[in-house]
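quick one, two chains, predict together pls
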Amino acid sequence: MSDDLDERALSGDLSDEEKQAFYEKLQNEPIYFNGINGATGEYGLPPMSGDDLASIIKGERPPENISELKAKSSQKGAGVSAPIKPPNDPARLDEAGWAIVFPALSPIVPAVKEALADLLKLRQPQAGPRFKIFEGPEGYRPNETKAQFCARHKIGDGPADPEQMPYYVLLVGSPEEIPYRFQYQLDVMRGVGRIHFDTLQEYANYAESVVMSESGRVKLPRQACFFGVANPDDKATEQSVKYLVAPLYERLKKLQPFSRWMGDGDQRTEVKLDWTLETFVREQASKAQLGSLLAGPQRPSLLFTASHGMEFPLGDARQIRHQGALLCQDWPGPNAYRGKIPESFYFSGDDLTQDANLLGSVIVHFACFGAGTPHLDEFARQAGKKEREILAARNFIANLPQRLLSRPRGGALAVIGHVERAWGYSFLLPGAGAQIGVFESMFRELMMGDRVGWATEHFNLRYADLATNLSDVLGELEYDPSYINPYDLAGMWTANNDARGYVLLGDPAARIPFALPNETTAERPSITLSVETRARLEKLGATLGTTQTATSGERTAPKQEAFSPTITEPASVQPEDVETLGVREQIGDLKDSIQKFANELAAALSKTAKEIATLEVKTFTTEDMDAVSQAGAGNALNVKLRALTRIAFNGNTEVYVPERAGGQVDRDLWQLHLDMVRQAQANRAQFLQAVAEMAANLLKIL
Amino acid sequence: MSETALQARLDPLGIWAAPQETAVAFGIGSTETRMPIRRIPLPSSSDEAQAFLKAKAEAVALTHQYLDRAAQELALIGLPGQVSFSATDELLTQKNSLSTTIGELCSPVSYGIKFKSDPEERETQQGWLELVEQVRQAVTRYARVRTDLGSVPIGLTTVTWQGDFQTTWTTGLGPDEMQVHLDAVHVALSSRIEMVRMVSVVAAGVANILLKVAVPGGQLMLLPAVYKFVRDVMQQLFKPPQQTLEG
């Protein structure tokens, strides 16, 4: 396809004939998805044609909360003031409210709450009567949908009524405890963020970072950086630089200065905010450069990165620590480099130094798995497959944003990123031009000082809009298969998934503490936990023990800290972790027995799968059963094969019927043989089913 | 229910007890003569033998049914603190006990201690390990089942892992005697499937609970507790119904 046609199609400047030609060509062009498999160096999801993707999408069902999405979508024309019930102002916490939601059943909630005490102390007076803690029976209950949660708390659908439930909601817990799906659904009508850390120390660090950022002592420079990787021969990153990073930078530069009204009533004054914008694209988008932007002297208040996110297969040792890590320009591309991706090509949480200070920053990643990974493949589900592929042993939050938020000297206030795969062409809809409006609006509002949960409303609105349109189109397709061309359908579906998958990690009420034009910027201070907080953590640490969790991979507690109480998590306790509790031997036995068994079952099932083409039933007679018992029917003397039935997988059956001396059929023996055949058929089916189920269940707990 | 009683339920013919390991490593693909023979001794009368086998077949069918029930109960359980089950529930005690155990396991303070100090728990854990080993050997080896009526050998059936059958009959037997071996093979193989299902139900129960609650130590700590629950549920369900006075 010529660049000219490509460019003009993106701007919607095509005649009908040209448009037809464009679609025909597009249908033969593969669609590229972001994400590189670190174990193989291949694309995480192979490119596929628009036709192929469209045929998959046609079986799509509308989302569970389609009515709310439609209501949200209808707000589009009314601007984004509608998600919250008027006249409440989303900038004011005493009107919008602030809530924190804990899992109802987690035994570590009291300790986490203690670690977050300073954040709660900050938000309570700000939100006043609209400050709410959902914990214990009030908290999120396992497997609860958003609708069930809201019904239990008498929270109505539609625009957020802060009297029922605050607009800003901070979820505290892993996506195993509070699923991503709940976050997506609650986020449609509210500003929702999430935090989940491996240690109490990290919770306390994050709380202190928010408190310090709102103390008035932090005056960050109004500086935003745009980091765009474009790996050689890689269409996905080439497109993200060309149609997302570059135009976003240009557009924001052009829109400056941003106006912000400060004060109330007669005291209201307009403040003009201009930001310094910088781009680091292509060769400048190296791992070293990203390290400098995150830990060096160039640290911006607002950072946007666009790149491939690393993904690893289930069970890969790097998956928990490095899934969603940012693949930088150091990767020479799919043609020049083959094989396992080394850590030197990508930036992970491990690359963040202990003394990095990101206090007050907000960071946005456009990358596959940049914010987290679901247990099951969303794409497989959407594809209508009966079984969803397991992406990871459990749902988890990416390690890099966890580390960005919890740095001991000062953490970022929020990281916005993608759960599951990020879809490159959600900002690139043919015929509609480059779709950067959502990104542009979010950045503009962040640069104007809006709360991050409010700034991300544009993603929610877009998701609602896309989901509503997609649902309508899929409905039409049931009656008219030619209602929409496959490439447009693929585009709508991809964009819909992409918009839904954006999540906010961090407190949704946070905002960038930048210096106003009449203020001078200052070096970021380092956070220091108060004596009371340290005492609380020490006490909690004594209660919870000091086991390091596996969720953080091979990370170890920072040595320079005097204490680092941590939280033990399910499914992460290894025998060596519990030695001091005296149960190592028992746990080791349990684990070894299951492991050994599962390995043998896997080998046996594999062998059976190869040899199960026929079912064979043989009937012998003998006068010396003891000899048969010792030697086997095939080896003993005086053994006669009297009947044989061999049933092939395709149904073909061979039989050898027993005869008596006179040549007549031995009916009694034949009847017994047939009974054995029936028994063999039933046994094989039931036994293999039972063993397969057992293997599957054992694998679930390994 | 003791471990012995459970064994009798799962293996009513008493043939699946794991044989001692010998110097010969039995495994998939080993020649059949290296496999241990599971010998079913029966009364010399074929009528008595058939009656005996009929009762055993009914016991296996009940085991199947009760394991289904245990699996259903496990799918609903797992929330510590939610112990307000119906007082008329015949499994109330077992459910409360498991719920309490989960609650204790969830508590950071009591983390794992239960398994260290409680002999009953150690016995339960040992019972679970033995069941796993028994099932492991039963499913990774060919099944060789021989039936003897009194001292008369009737038949020997070898079932491969792929499900192929080889049956050798002693010549000169009547149909009733041969039917005994047929029935015996049926009971033996059905009970083997129920043993597999027992492990499966326990593992599925653990996985289900872990989806609902965060248990420090996870599956490793829950396995014996859930095994005990299934075992106790079966004991309760196998109890004969209590006599009630009428009129």
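Residues 77-81, 381-385, 542-585 of chain A have pLDDT under 50 and may be disordered.
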